[in-house]
Design a protein that fits this description.
With 584 residues, this protein is of the alpha/beta class. It is 36% helix and 18% strand. The protein has 23 helices and 20 strands. About 1% of the residues have low confidence. It comes from Natrinema altunense (strain JCM 12890 / CGMCC 1.3731 / AJ2). One of its GO terms (biological process) is L-leucine catabolic process.
């Protein structure tokens, strides 16, 4: 170290400065004048001065006090009674600490509230043994932070070996703090759920309190659309515990081990007399096919992590950020085949994924709720590395007609994409909303209203492609010209009409045709009317009248969409100034 002093400093003063600085900063010191002349120096010999005594670092180590703390931490990390840990392999699931290691490994950052309820159970307090059911390490709920797939996240995880993952006062407080911190940090939340619900015998102090378990769902509501909330179910989540997965933006259930229900089978039997097992009551198949509450089904714990790793790659950290871009990839199949995939006949079925695979980046498609309302596809994908949400009619199921469950699924997906600034691609090939007494009972008008409302209110860039038929209110729900899309593109197979030719001719000309006695003449007239009608609804007529923006050769559709999504990436749309709409 060199110290510069003024030229009027004496040699004795310079030497004193050098020795003092060497001792203070434990370094060799040279004192020079402003002109660069050396007038004093001192070397640090590593010793101590006469007034300071200290032991070398090599002789220091944890004290008995720290050793006691480390033993206590080891006891907490061991979880609940060993007998319950021994049951986990037969149940097809991991001990919660091993699960956390699977998810985060070396990217685990820290845990909060490890000592929750410590004085209630620890041997120094309640004198509990290792297999005592009163062990309450971390109060059965682990919360903390970690890095997941390069993203900082908050997380919680139930410990099923502690009172079957049930929730009590201290665990509830940790859960609430984690949610409230997520509101402040703007980072995603992972819920790794395996809980039998509230700890009934300890409900005083956490059930109905202002800061009790009911506040979970208030916080879920505040977080909704602010940061992504992803829930994975590893076991039975009953009663209050079942609301977290349905409040989350995305829910993953693990086959054969997870379930969620408003009440346990035992309670159901008490209340209704119905005898039913848990999987029949609320297993993955129930929620994938019937309730629509499960977005994805994992085959095991490792698969659950893989699905969430894929899912989070489409999502921003919060509503202020844009979704993450990646390197673009060519489609898995050539766009040149699109026109051959789409039949000219409006009533002939085909798989819309054969079109999607020719538009989006190879390997980028993640379909959600595939078994619920399958006549509409809701999926994330990428075009040139840009995340998009796809809403597509699926002619391979129920001719692509929109049923109530499909409309509900589409509305919720559109709403979620809009919340997280994910552009939307609509691929339209539908005869419209389904008609009939049963769908009226099932709420086709109510659910159809929600889909149209979501499409109307979405402020993200929207591209709508009329792949083939767009009949009835189907063109409205699929972001047709009246719904403020950035573009409406037609393929040469496209048609837009109130209804298809057969139905229209039957509605308008049925009496006139019935008056024709000659069968051949009647068929000729019917064909002539059908052709005239199709001329009116043909996509060329729609383009000629500027109803749609462009007719695109199918083999160019990928490039066209790539250019349009890029161009409209920063488009801004305003909604009317109001508190909120009245449609839920």
């Amino acid at each position: 170290m060199r110290i510069r002093v003024s030229t009027d400093t004496t040699d004795a003063e310079a030497q004193a400065i050098a020795e003092a600085m060497a001792s203070q900063y434990r370094d060799d010191v040279t004192v020079v004048t402003d002109g660069g002349e050396e007038i004093g120096s001192a070397s640090y010999d590593g010793g101590t001065d006469a007034t300071t005594e200290s032991e070398p670092d090599s002789e220091l180590g944890p004290t008995a006090r720290e050793e006691t703390l480390l033993d206590e931490i080891d006891d907490i990390l061991a979880g609940g009674p060993e007998k319950y840990k021994d049951q986990l392999p037969d149940q097809g699931k991991l001990f919660v600490r091993d699960r956390i290691d699977l998810w985060f490994g070396d990217d685990f950052l820290f845990e909060d509230g490890k000592f929750a309820a410590f004085d209630d159970w620890h041997p120094d307090g309640a004198n509990t043994a290792e297999d005592d059911d009163d062990r309450l390490p971390a109060d059965g709920l682990i919360t903390g932070a970690a890095e997941f797939e390069g993203r900082d996240v908050h997380f919680m995880a139930n410990d099923y070996t502690v009172k079957r993952g049930s929730m009590a006062a201290k665990g509830v407080e940790k859960f609430l703090r984690m949610q409230q911190r997520a509101l402040k940090t703007g980072k995603p939340v992972l819920y790794l759920m395996d809980s039998s619900g509230g700890r009934i015998d300890q409900q005083t102090g956490f059930f109905a309190n202002r800061e009790g378990i009911g506040k979970y769902y208030y916080n879920h509501s505040m977080l909704s659309g602010r940061v992504p909330q992803i829930c994975v179910l590893y076991g039975p989540c009953i009663a209050g515990a079942a609301y977290t997965p349905v409040f989350a933006d995305f829910t993953v259930m693990v086959r054969d081990v997870s379930a969620m229900a408003i009440a346990s089978p035992r309670m159901v039997e008490m209340v209704t007399g119905e005898r039913i097992d848990l999987q029949e009551l609320g297993g993955p198949d129930v929620h994938a096919q019937h309730s629509g509450s499960a977005d994805l089904i994992a085959e095991d714990e490792e698969h659950a992590r893989e699905l969430v790793a894929q899912l989070i790659g489409y999502l921003p950290n919060n509503s202020d950020e844009t979704p993450p871009r990646s390197d673009g990839q060519a489609p898995a199949a050539s766009p040149d085949g699109i026109d051959a995939v789409v039949p000219q006949e409006p009533n002939k079925g085909y798989d819309m994924f054969d079109v999607i695979d020719r538009i989006v980046d190879a390997g980028s498609t993640l379909e959600l709720r595939s078994e619920y309302g399958p006549e509409i596809i809701t999926a994330f994908a990428r075009i040139d590395g840009r995340p998009i949400g796809i809403v597509a009619n699926q002619p391979a199921h129920r001719a692509g007609a929109i049923f109530p469950d499909a409309a509900e699924k589409a509305a919720e997906f559109i709403w979620t994409c809009d919340a997280y600034d994910i552009p939307l691609l609509y691929l339209c090939d539908t005869p419209g909303f389904m008609a009939g007494s049963q769908v009226e009972k099932d709420g086709i008008l109510e659910q159809g209203k929600k889909m149209i409302y979501a499409t109307s209110s979405a402020t993200v860039p929207k591209q709508s492609v009329v792949v083939r038929k767009a009949y009835g209110a189907g063109i409205y729900a699929m972001s047709g010209p009246a719904y403020d899309p950035e573009s409406v593109i037609g393929l040469p197979s496209g048609e837009i009409a109130i209804m298809g030719p057969e139905a229209a001719i039957n509605a308008v000309y049925a009496r006139k045709l019935a008056e024709i006695d000659d069968e051949e003449e009647r068929k000729r007239m019917e064909q002539e009317l059908r052709e005239e009608y199709r001329e009116d609804i043909d996509v060329h007529r729609m383009a000629s009248e500027v109803v749609i923006d462009e007719i695109v050769p199918p083999s160019d559709l990928r490039e066209e969409l790539e250019a349009r999504f890029a161009f409209y990436e920063t488009v801004e749309k305003d909604l009317p100034d109001k508190k909120h709409g009245t449609v839920l």
